[in-house]
Amino acid sequence: MAVGKFNIGKQFVKNYLWHYVPQKTQIILKLIIDDNLINNFKNDYNVKFLPKTQFEDLKFEKVDLSFLKESSSSSNYLGTSNLFSFFIEKKNDNSLIVVSDKAEIYELKNSYIFENNKNKKNFQQLETNINVKKVLDAFILNNEIFLSFVSEGLNCDYFRIMRANLNEKNLNFVDFFAIDECGTVIQGGRMQYYNHNNHDGLLFTTGDNYADSPNGKSQKINSIFGKVIFKPFNDSKYEIFSLGHRNPQGLFVENELILMTEHGPKGGDEINRIVFNKNYGWPIASYGDKYNSTDSFSYKQSHFENGFEEPIYSFIPSIGISEIIKIPNTFSEKWIDNFIISSLFGRSIYRVKFDNNFKKLIYVEKIYIGQRIRDIKYLKNENLILLALEENGEIGILSNLN
């Protein structure tokens, strides 16, 4: 009976009292309510908590983005909707662009972030002509901004990418990719520049899945969903680059190397090396399982034995994997050839190193941050790592003290 009463109490706090509890009390309640977080504190004796890591002491600062509004389409792990989802891009040496999931676009001068100077002259909201249900990613290339997003139709949703010139006073977005295929739960949307067959264009990800009922579109060539897609800048045609993906949340491109992170179901978040025309197995193969499965496994475990590409690494349990970036060797002489992977549910960053062929991970270091991290960027000139912290709407700044 005591266990049952405790569970009812947890739900009561989540559903009714949370918005009326002071922030300091919320932190204490999170420790009490979130069983997984308690277990992490008990069991993760080898996890490093900022500012310390295994080999470096980092300086960790946070800058509040007080102008951000709460996301209407997300829920945090306590069952409330008070998230501030946003993406970070560098416009030039003097300013950053912050894009909320509602397509509110802000330009922030460096002094707003690095000097914590919130004078109104140091940031401004840019006027746009765009109306979206949910932004999936923002990407800047050659002073042009691309937004991938979910567009709401009369009876279903659509995946779209639009572009605008950042030099204009008002951002006039025009279509870059628009296919009228209905989606159920549209995900993915990460974008990077790529040259494919001597054509410059965008490489981007798509996903469409509903919890324990995958729709199978990831395996259908006539569907855009569950794919990595390439579209040239100067051509209306697009090409399916790879298929068999669930919910791709991170994308890294360097010359011919393409790395992607994607959410598995219950367990099985993946790091994949993307190769043209390869199939990555979803929803047939996964090292995760259905959330409400009573079978031994709902999906085939081995990708290779079933004709699919194996992931480089699979996180079990899932970490709510998000973006992946490469850290230049100038950041730390002890972090040579390292990548950083951010996470949502894991509320951590993961420092990883691949072997020379990018076929396996040599090591993984979990570094606890304490908030969901939607996006992550490295700034070369400042030698800093920026984190999009979506629980409180803050930019986290990591710098090396050594």
Describe this structure in words.
This protein has four helices and 26 strands. The chain is mainly beta. The chain has a domain at 1-33. The chain has a five-stranded mixed beta sheet with strand order 1-23-22-21-20, with no helix packed on it. A five-stranded mixed beta sheet has the order 3-4-5-6-10. A hairpin with a 4-residue loop joins strand 21 (338-343) and strand 22. It starts with a helix and ends with a strand. The model is unreliable at 1-16 and 74-80 (pLDDT under 50).
Question: What's the gist of this structure?
Answer:
The chain is mainly beta and about 400 residues long. The chain has helices at about 1-15, 25-35, 35-45, 110-115, and strands spanning about 50, 60-65, 85-90, 95-100, 105-110, 125-130, 135-140, 145-150, 155-165, 170, 175-180, 185-195, 200-210, 225-230, 240-245, 245-255, 255-265, 270-275, 315, 320-325, 340-345, 350-355, 360-370, 375-380, 385-390, 395-400. A hairpin with a 2-residue loop joins β16 (about 245-255) and β17 (about 255-265).
Question: Layout of SSEs?
Answer:
Elements: H1 2-17, H2 23-33, H3 35-43, E1 48-49, E2 58-64, E3 86-92, E4 95-100, E5 105-109, H4 110-114, E6 123-128, E7 134-141, E8 144-152, E9 157-165, E10 170-171, E11 174-178, E12 186-196, E13 199-208, E14 227-232, E15 239-243, E16 247-254, E17 257-263, E18 269-273, E19 313-315, E20 321-327, E21 338-343, E22 348-354, E23 361-368, E24 373-379, E25 384-389, E26 394-400
The neighbouring-strand order within the major sheet is 1-23-22-21-20
Helix/strand order = HHHEEEEEHEEEEEEEEEEEEEEEEEEEEE
Uncertain stretches: 1-16, 74-80
E-strand count? 26
Shape by Cα distribution: globular
Q: Using only CA atoms, what is the Rg?
A: 21 Å
Strand content is: 35-45%
Helix content: 10-25%
Gap between N and C termini, in Å? 54 Å
Number of helices: 4
The class by helix and strand makeup works out as mainly beta
Characterize the biggest β-sheet.
5 strands, mixed
How would you state the average pLDDT, rounded? 87
